[in-house]
Amino acid sequence: MPHSVPASTDARPPRPGRPSEVARRKRRVIIQMIAFAAVTGVLIVIVMVRRDQQSVEQCRREAHAVAAALRRDALESRTLPMNLPIPPARRAHYHYNPVNSMFFGGGRPVGLCCCASPHRLLLAPNGRHVVLVADDRVEVRWLSEAEFQAHKAGWQLQPPVIR
Ligand SMILES: [Zn+2]
Fold first, then answer.
1. What is the distance in A from the centroid of ligand 1 to the CA of 127?
2. Cα 145 to Cα 33: distance, rounded to the nearest angstrom
3. Cα–ligand 1 centroid distance for 118 (angstroms)
4. What is the CA(120)–ligand 1 centre distance, in A?
5. Are strands 94-96 and 110-115 parallel, antiparallel or unpaired?
6. How do residues 73-121 score in pLDDT, each as one tens digit?
7. CA 19 – ligand 1 centroid, Å
């Protein structure tokens, strides 16, 4: 009876210097795991950056709405409402400074409100929106946290530190 030849080359013992099928499979699984982790990491970064952008954009729209609503109060009647003119559920996002109307028109910018805590951003410096009365205009500025810390006392904005 003739000697039978193995049906698959996989059944042959590995030649010296060549990885066995088990080693190749192991390497393939490791490469797939690394690729999966890398893709997952990139997706997480994309989701976090998108979340940051949406948060800042919502805040920017609200800050402009606040500036528009307070413009007449601050520049004409020089009395500000007790609460920010935004939905109550969103008021905690901001530090409001309604007592500053006595300082309007003094030639120095006065802060009406700012984000109560900085937006913590993944790919950009942390920052806040600030609504100011400056040069007889009510304006919205985006400041890095370092810029905000440098200006907040001069603008009479002292949000409590939230940890
Ligand atoms: Zn904000």
1. 8
2. 39
3. 7
4. 10
5. antiparallel
6. 877 777 888 888 889 999 999 999 886 566 676 678 889 999 999 999 9
7. 57
